[in-house]
Amino acid sequence: MTKPIIGPATDPHAHDRKSTERGAAERNEQYKALLEASAVVLWLAAPDGTLTHLEGTIEIGLLIGDAYTGQGWFDFVHRDDLARVKAAWLWAVSSGTPYQNEFRIKLASGEYRWMLANAVALKNPDGTIREWVGSVADIHDRKQVEEKLRDSEERLRLALHAGRMFAWEQDLRTDYITRSQNAVSLLGVGSGPLAEFLDKVHPEDRALRHHFAQVVKTQGSYTSEFRYILPSGKVLWFGSRAELASPDRVVGVTFDITDRKAAEEEIWRAANHDSLTGLPNRGLFHRCLEQALSDAKINGTSVSLLLIDLDDFKDVNDTLGHDAGDALLQEAARRLAGLMRPSDIVARLGGDEFAVLLTDPATLDEATQFAERIIGTLREPFTYRRRTVSSRASIGVAAFPEHDLAPTGLMKSADIALYRAKAQGRNRVLTYSPAMRREIEKRVTLGADLREGLARNQITPFYQPKICLATGQIVGFEALARWEHPTRGVLDPAFFGAAFEDADLAPAIRRQLVAKVAADMGRWRDDNLPFGRIAVNFSSADFSQPRLVEEILEAFQSAKVEPEAFEIEITETVLLGRSSDCISAILRQFRDNGISIALDDFGTGYASLMHLKHFPVDHVKIDRTFIEDLNQNADDEAIVAAIIGLGRSLNLKITAEGVETRDQEQRLKRLGCHYAQGYLYSSAVSGLDVGELLARFRRA
């Protein structure tokens, strides 16, 4: 028997070997494909960490073959990561702990890409390290995404920080609030339960904030503003905007609006408060008045309104300057505010006018007593730049519901009472009465009638003679305005005197009067009547006319009368009405044109001597109040004697007004008075009767 030949074709294990080789080749192909698809480098290293083998599709640097072994791969690690990578690898080698690190490495293309390196130690039975097995995976795309995310988060963080805001999320099931990191710098707290946050919300805003999330859940979104008290005690304003993200989750942003609120408050204050005194202005006061009356109607209570006017404000402005006037207003505001109760309101309505609203239940008598306290307080002097400044005040009082039910009507009632207080001498309190309103209405009606009378040329002069006490002859006349009313006859200023306080009526009356006086003087001159000098009273309103001097001179030029035969009479109120320099300049223009200046009602004002010093006065007229009791009152006689002596020493002519008896006449002669005027000699007569009056005195 022949033995079979044993060879490859007949080897019983040949098929298995070929199968094994094929499987190994396939696995090797799969392995390489896996490395290529996963962009991973596999590597081996000795126990001391020296790289012994590297396999993969990532081409690191320009190393090939065995050049990757040893420590050569460190040369391609980014220099910013090298120290960290080396230190971490050496620590892993020395401790045997698994290694993981992220770093940038330079590829063959010259590009740096982020890699993730992992390694574990294979150990011998005795625990010593036999070999390191590791991998390097390309994580560059992931790192770029992470970098962009970090940049985005940083921009968001910076935006939140710059805008002083933070983002938050509230779990409606637990009321736990998760807040962004910068919440700590704004609130003083980070994430936490809602109750922790509400404890620091201002008590007045806490209820609104507590239900904030529920409102968002109901409406889908909501915005609110509230105050928050920091741990330091400082109060901030925050605004919150939130939306419902899911049935149990609300997301939102909270932002600091403290500066905006402060700006809004400043804008509101500027719009509603007086810039000089800081008090509420007219607009805010009217709103307060409307609200007070509305509340009083509902509650059945009363409201008292006080309108206050500083009597001497113009004097202070004219004599000490506008800065002193401002100081007076500020001091008055401070004193008024100091008198107010928490329920009271004081405001500056404009100029030197203030208003007080008393809303606490009080009687009208109590309001009047309070007004008297105000007058006493404002009267006390204060020092401004080493000058003593004092001021008096007039106050009009009106009350709801006694005097009116509407805000406008109540203001009008108080204003009428204030007007009457000033007309009766100032420095007093007057309570409104219906009679005052009737008087004002009568005055308004009078004004309309008087305008019609002026249009019809019904204002005419009547003349009261001025007598020389030494000769008993007429030396001149005072022209007094009369209204030749078509139905009431001739009316004197007792009927229409209020018109001289009107800025429009007073100059119109004066123009018509002067024109007729000039015409009368021209006629008398033509008739050779020795009428002397004719005086006309000028009001404060006249001196506000820009062409006053020119108008007067033109009137006399038209009548061909010399202005030297004319005299202007003014009272001290005229001198107080405008800037003293302005009044003085106008008076000097009159005097430069030959017109004489007389100071009427001398002795009744508080600054008469100063006026004689600062204004061009030629003639002084002693007020009738000092003449009527001249024979019975030694004080009056002493005053008259002093005025006459003062006039003589200043080379001024002196006329006594209101002379009605021979005894008064004789006493004035003995005291050395120059002239007299009064009913003893004649009442005022029309221009047509002046000639007969002159003849009668010549015969006498």
Automatic annotation (TrEMBL):
Q: Where is this region: Disordered?
A: 1-23
Question: Known SMART domains for this protein?
Answer: EAL, GGDEF, PAC, PAS
Which PROSITE patterns would you find in this protein's record? EAL, GGDEF, PAC
Q: Which residues form the GGDEF domain?
A: 301-434
Which Gene3D superfamilies does the annotation name?
3.30.70.270, EAL domain (3.20.20.450), PAS domain (3.30.450.20)
Q: Which residues form the PAC domain?
A: 99-151
Domain of life of the organism encoding this protein:
Bacteria
Report biased composition (Basic and acidic residues) as residue ranges.
12-23
UniProt-listed Pfam families: EAL, GGDEF, PAS_3
**Gene Ontology molecular functions:** catalytic activity
Residues forming the EAL domain are 443-698
Q: What is this protein called?
A: Diguanylate cyclase (GGDEF)-like protein/PAS domain S-box-containing protein
